[in-house]
Amino acid sequence: MLNERISTRNLAMKRSALLLTILLLVTLVLIVAFQYASGSTGDFGTQAAESKKATQQDLNDIGSIPLPPGYKRIPVDSGSFGGFLRSIRLRKNNTVYLYNGQPKLQQDLHYAVLDISTGNKDLQQCADAIMRLRAEYFFAARQYGNISFPGSGAKTFHFEDYARSHGGCHSHDCLLGFMEMVDAWCGTYTVATMTKPVPLNNMKPGDVLVKAGSPGHAMIVVDMALNEKTGGKIYLLAQGYMPAQDMHIVINTNNNAVSPWYELNNDEQIPTPEWLFYSNQLRRYW
After folding, report:
1. SS in 3 state form for the chain?
2. 110-128, pLDDT tens digit by residue?
3. Which of 9, 27, 109, 152 has its CA 20 to 30 A from that of 171?
4. CA 191 to chain centroid
C-alpha cells in the first residue's frame, strides 16, 4: 500500500513538472513574439516620424501646411492680420527651443515651428507671443501708432513713445527692445482687455482663445479652411508657452485624422495639448 501511494505521488509530481515545463515554454514563445512585434512597431513608428519630418521640410509658411481631403482655405485679404499670419515662415529645424537655447523637453506636441525669435530671457510666453505677432503685423505695415499694449494699472505702452525715447528709432531691434518691456508688464489680461468675445461658430483667423489670470493661457487661430461640400470648418492653433519658447503650431491630440487641424464644432470644451479651453473663451481684436 505504501509503495502504491509513493508511485501515485511520483506520477503526480511528474505530471506537475511536465505541465510547468509546458507553461514555461509557452511563456517564452509569447515573450519572443511580443518583442518581435514591438520591434516591428517601433521601426514603423520611426519610419512614420521620419516621413512626417521629411514632409515638414517642404513647408515654407503657415499657408503651405497641408489640408485634409475636401477642404479649401478660406479667403483672407493679403493686408489683413489673417493674411499676415498665413504668410509667417516656418523653420526647417522643427525643434522647439527654450529661451536659454535648450530644447523643450517634450517635442511631440507640435507640428511646426514659427520662424520668429524668442529672445534670451524668460519673457515671451503665451500672451506675449500673441502680442508679438500683433506688433510684427503693424510694424511690417509701418503702422507704428497701432503698436500699443495696456499693462498693469493705468499704464499703456506705446511703441512711438519708446521710439522717441531712443532717438526716433524705428528699427526692428528697437521693436524687440520695446516688446521685452511689454512682456515684462503685460500678459493674458492685456490680450483679454484688447479683445471682445465672439461666438465660436463665427471664428476667423486672428481670433484668440484666452483664459486670463494666473494660471492662464492664450492661443491664436492662425489659419482656417472650409469643406465646400459639408460646410464644416477647421482651424490651426499656435502658441508660445512657459517657460518662454519658440512659437509653434500644436497638433490635435484628440483627432489624428485631421491633426494639426481642429474641427470647428459645438463642443463646449476645446482640448489642446497643454491647455483646456472653453467655447466662450474665443475673442477678437477690436
Report:
1. CHHHHHHHHHHHHHHHHHHHHHHHHHHHHHHHHHHHHHHHHHHHHHHHHHHHHHHHHCCCEHHHCCCCCCEEECCCCCCCHHHHHHCCEECCCCCCEECCCCECCCCCCEEEEECCCCCCCCCCCHHHHHHHHHHHHHHHCCCHHHCEEECCCCCEEEHHHHHHHCCCCCCHHHHHHHHHHHHHHCCHHHHHHCEEECCHHHCCCCCEEEECCCCCEEEEEEEEEEECCCCCEEEEEEECCCCCECCEEECCCCCCCCCCCEECCCCCEEEECCEEEEHHHEEEEC
2. 999 999 999 999 999 999 9
3. 152
4. 19
